[in-house]
Design a protein that fits this description.
It contains 2 helices and 2 strands, in the order ββαα. With 92 residues, the protein is of the alpha+beta class. The radius of gyration is 21 Å and the shape is elongated.
Length: 92
């Protein structure tokens, strides 16, 4: 579903604009200007380098997405605690 939010912003003396809540959760934007002189901001969200492997591994990403869908739909099975497998160095 596409939700359009319209907000009028005015640049300050240095040409800067404030997006406020429209930029909430966004770490950066790709800025392009089209043939009609419209300025398009494409939001980007950065991920930690240690998590990049997941997005590079299509099979693992698919499994994570399926797990999230299963969880959202209530298809869960408790396997007990996995605490004994945690290495303190992994949690930092």
């Amino acid at each position: 579903m596409i939700v359009k939010q319209h907000k009028i912003v005015r640049p300050d003396a240095k040409g800067r604009i404030t997006l406020g809540v429209l930029a909430e959760g966004i770490s950066s934007f790709v800025v392009t200007k089209d043939k009609s002189n419209r300025i398009i901001l494409e939001p980007r969200i950065e991920i930690p380098a240690r998590e990049k492997w997941l997005f590079d591994n299509k099979s693992a990403l698919k499994q994570v997405k399926k797990g999230l869908e299963d969880s959202a739909d209530g298809r869960l099975k408790s396997r007990g605690s996995f605490a004994k497998f945690v290495d303190d160095e992994d949690t930092q």
